[in-house]
UniProtKB/TrEMBL annotation:
Transmembrane annotation, as ranges: 58-76, 83-103, 115-134, 211-230, 251-274, 280-304, 316-334, 340-363, 375-398, 404-423
Organism in which the protein naturally occurs: Streptomyces rochei
Keyword terms of this UniProt record: Membrane, Transmembrane, Transmembrane helix
InterPro entries, sorted: MFS, MFS_trans_sf
SUPFAM superfamilies assigned: MFS general substrate transporter (SSF103473)
Protein name: MFS transporter
Pfam families membership: MFS_1 (PF07690)
Span of the signal peptide: none
Length: 429
């Protein structure tokens, strides 16, 4: 017959008594629950207010991967011209490159909520105007004017990174995790956004992608800016110099320009390669695999403790990106297999997120205090300029050579970025 105490649950088991010298000591042998220390991302999101502004920012950021695809499908489907659709989206990209730094400067000076909300509403009106112009067959010039108005969309990723920098202070390890998380979020949005936009525009009606994107943008921005406790303080009269004049920032912008060339060329060349294989519809899936590899690598990179300063890590990250980008070139040139190309793009994408995380970390370090959002937006502007140049160069190479040979453009752009990171720092007087 079992002892009566053995039927009790472990929490009710009595402690045993032992004699130590002249003292009677209670020894507690009851099992204790083992608590695992929280991971880096769990610690990051446990920061007060972090989850609320992250949800809003992700909702507002998702349309960034939707608007251009939605515009192309909407315009080309109703006007029957991909040339017109491409010209309209290129105009919006150029307008964003000019307007975005100005919007970011206003955000730094007057606060995120005061500037981002009206700027977002103005951009939303531009998108709605584009829908109406397409729907009612307005003159072509109205499409350009309406889409150019969307350039006032604030840099949502930059504002989120500015909040992390404000909340985390000088904790470099936590800031590294935050930057990795934001880069993975960028990749996720640019991976899911085009797929969602294409699905909405084809399954419902051509304007559906733009309308859903506007709803997500406005709703997410209102939720994001409502979290006032995590908003960085405004600097109405910043005493620091402009980021473009800060030591070490212009070389980083040049690296962003070259890195953007990788992204722009890769997208155009992959679409052309899949089209030449008779599988144009699969191009989106292939590009999504590249973004998935980058997203996974970004999360893994953020979970690791960075070794050495970011200045020393950046050349190694760019070198890895350059080497891995030769894999799609070899797969396309030697085999012509689309499945093998997709696999190599998945692997090559794993080097882009660490490169972008390290670059953005350096931009944060080198941007003068009080002008962080402006500095981050300049980096994004550099990326956009590089994407435009890479798209044009990749398209020219496809037309005059072949899609397989055009995969040399991303490799060349990555090698250019590597040379820029290896240049000796400019001495300041």
């Amino acid at each position: 017959m079992p002892h009566p105490t053995s039927a009790r649950p472990p929490s009710q088991q009595p402690a045993l008594l032992t004699v130590t010298g002249d003292c009677l000591v209670a020894a507690d042998f009851r099992p204790r629950a083992r608590s695992r220390p929280p991971g880096p991302y769990r610690r990051l999101l446990s920061t007060p207010g972090a989850r609320a502004f992250t949800v809003g920012n992700l909702l507002a950021r998702m349309p960034m991967g939707m608007f251009s695809v939605s515009a192309v499908v909407m315009i080309a489907g109703t006007r029957g011209s991909y040339a017109l659709a491409g010209a309209v989206t290129a105009t919006g990209l150029a307008a964003t490159a000019l307007v975005a730094p100005w919007i970011a400067r206003l955000v730094d000076r007057h606060g995120q909520a005061r500037v981002a909300v009206p700027a977002t509403l103005l951009a939303a009106l531009g998108s709605l105007a584009l829908v109406l112009c397409v729907r009612y067959d307005a003159p072509a010039w109205t499409l350009f004017a309406a889409y150019a108005a969307t350039a006032t969309t604030p840099n949502t990723g930059g504002m989120a990174r500015a909040r992390w920098a404000h909340l985390l202070g000088g904790d470099s390890a936590a800031l590294h995790t935050a930057n990795s998380f934001e880069q993975a979020a960028d990749e996720l949005c640019y991976m899911l956004g085009p797929v969602l936009a294409a699905l909405l525009c084809t399954a419902w009606f051509p304007e559906a992608g733009t309308l859903v994107g506007v709803t997500l943008l406005v709703g997410g921005m209102l939720l994001f800016t409502a979290q006032r406790s995590t908003e960085p303080p405004a600097r109405p009269r910043p005493t620091a110099k402009a980021p473009l004049r800060a030591p070490g920032v212009p070389p980083l912008l040049a690296v962003c320009l070259a890195t953007g060339g990788v992204f722009g060329a890769m997208e155009v060349v992959t679409i052309a390669f899949a089209d030449a294989q008779g599988h144009r519809a699969a191009a989106g899936v292939v590009l999504a695999l590249q973004a998935a590899g980058s997203c996974a690598a970004g999360l893994l990179y953020g979970a690791l403790k960075p070794a050495g300063p970011a200045e020393h890590r950046l050349p190694w990250c760019v070198a890895a990106m350059t080497v891995l980008l030769t894999l799609p070139l070899l797969a396309a040139a030697l085999t012509g297999s689309l499945p093998l190309l997709a696999l190599t793009l998945l692997v090559a994408g794993m080097a882009t997120a660490p490169t972008m995380v390290t670059t953005m970390t350096l931009v944060q370090h080198r941007t003068p205090e009080g002008r962080l959002n402006e500095g981050m937006t300049l980096a994004v502007t550099g990326l956009l300029g590089g994407i435009a140049c890479g798209s044009a160069t990749g398209g020219w190479m496809v037309e005059h050579a072949s899609p397989a040979a055009a995969y040399g453009i991303p490799v060349t752009a990555a090698a250019t970025a590597l040379l820029l990171t290896l240049l000796p720092p400019r001495r300041t007087v």
